[in-house]
Design brief:
Elements: E1 2-11, E2 16-18, E3 23-24, E4 28-45, E5 52-55, E6 58-59, H1 62-79, E7 84-91, H2 102-116, H3 123-133, H4 135-139, E8 145-148, E9 156-158, H5 162-165, E10 167-174, H6 183-193, H7 197-217, H8 220-239, H9 250-264, E11 269-272, E12 279-284, H10 288-296, E13 301-307, E14 314-315
Parallel strand pairs: 5-7
Antiparallel strand pairs: 1-4, 1-14, 2-3, 4-7, 4-8, 5-6, 8-9, 10-12, 10-13, 11-12
Helix pairs in contact: 1-2, 1-3, 2-3, 7-8
The structure holds ligand DP6.
The site of ligand DP6 has 15 residues, from helix 4 and helix 6.
Length: about 325
């Protein structure tokens, strides 16, 4: 059984250089999150006629099954295994909340399936396997902070300054509203229709370098500023897509302004937003509890999760997987 943590990009990946191979168009850099994780168990079984995928206790839908089987096919090819597999996966955070689970999900799947097939792959190779399904998952193989360059096939860890190791992420889960468009189709749509995508793409490497340099030197003010710029530049490109991609709701804006107020009063707090309405606030560990109570009071904020940097994806004894009874008709990982 494998466990992998989710991650939040400080410098965003948005756009594909090669959609077939799933190669990122821009460099990105993320913090792995201790508080959000996926546990996945894989067993290859010659008696099975098809792959069986159970996510959070429910049989996976057709499109999720296809994506999971694609990972299993790569592993089967490398290990010369013909058997189908039973895959059980559980998130320790509510998938229905709309918090991204594809990063932790595909990282855990890459590690669990390769280990179940007897392959002892390096982190770089596991990251490449996860990346082929989801670029953000490539970063979740690593603990702490991780980056993936534009066009790269795998991510790598970044050894940051001690000051940066003391960072935390406060996640304000806001009203979900209608189900958001998934990040894969949303980024392809942005690339195809937004006149501002090229602007984001041109600017992304410099923003990434700034985030990276700030993490290495411990320049938190520069880090927070570059991180917000990355997220807002990405959302600006989405807003200009046709039809427009608007992930924000009133609570998203309430949190943005709440973070700006905290900052005006001298607290280190900067936000980032992914392909959903939730707001993730980067802060120092000592301020996290206070920021959490401020954000929890804002209109539309449903719950607040605090997380420090998480560890790398790892194998755990199989009995640590507590499988719920399967039921039909679930959505897959989001
Ligand atoms: C906004 O990694 O989910 O979270 O490669 O198509 O699976 P695919 O996309 P995915 O996109 C993540 C987009 C993001 C920014 C980021 O994590 O860098």
């Amino acid at each position: 059984m494998a466990l992998a943590h989710s991650n939040i990009a400080l410098a965003k990946y948005w756009g594909k250089r090669d959609a077939e191979l799933n190669l990122p168009d821009v460099p990105s850099l993320s913090m792995t999150l201790a508080a959000l994780s996926t546990r996945t168990r894989v067993q290859f079984d010659p008696s099975l006629e098809a792959d069986q995928i159970v996510l959070n206790g429910s049989v996976a839908d057709a499109s999720t099954t296809k994506k999971v089987s694609a990972v299993l096919d790569r592993v089967r090819g490398a290990a010369a295994i013909a058997s189908r597999a039973r895959v059980e996966s559980m998130n320790d955070f509510p998938t229905a909340s709309g918090l991204a689970s594809s990063a932790s999900g595909f990282a855990a799947l890459a590690l669990a399936s390769s280990a179940a097939a007897g392959l002892d792959w390096s982190s770089a190779r596991l990251s490449g396997l996860a990346r082929a399904s989801s670029v953000s998952a490539a970063r979740s193989i690593f603990g702490g902070f991780a980056y993936i360059e534009a066009g790269a096939i795998s991510a790598a860890p970044l050894d940051v300054s001690p000051l940066a190791r003391d960072l935390a992420m406060v996640i304000a889960v806001t009203d979900a509203g209608p189900k958001p468009v998934g990040s894969t189709s949303a980024m392809l749509h942005t690339q195809a229709t937004s006149p501002y995508y090229q602007g984001f793409r041109d600017r992304a490497p410099a923003i990434y370098e700034e985030v990276r340099a700030a993490l290495l030197s411990g320049d938190l003010a520069r880090l927070g500023d570059a991180m917000e710029h990355s997220a807002l530049a990405m959302h600006a490109a989405m807003l200009a897509a046709r039809p427009s991609l608007i992930y924000w709701n009133p609570a998203t804006l309430a949190v943005i302004h709440g973070v700006r107020e905290l900052r005006a009063r001298g607290t280190f707090a900067h936000f980032t937003i992914d392909a959903g309405p939730h707001v993730k606030v980067l802060c120092q560990t000592g301020d996290a509890a206070r920021i959490r109570s401020v954000l929890a009071e804002l209109p539309g904020v449903q719950r607040v999760i605090v997380s420090g940097p998480g560890a790398a994806a790892r194998l755990l004894p199989s009995h640590e997987f507590v499988a719920p009874a399967p039921s039909q008709g679930s959505r897959g990982a989001s």
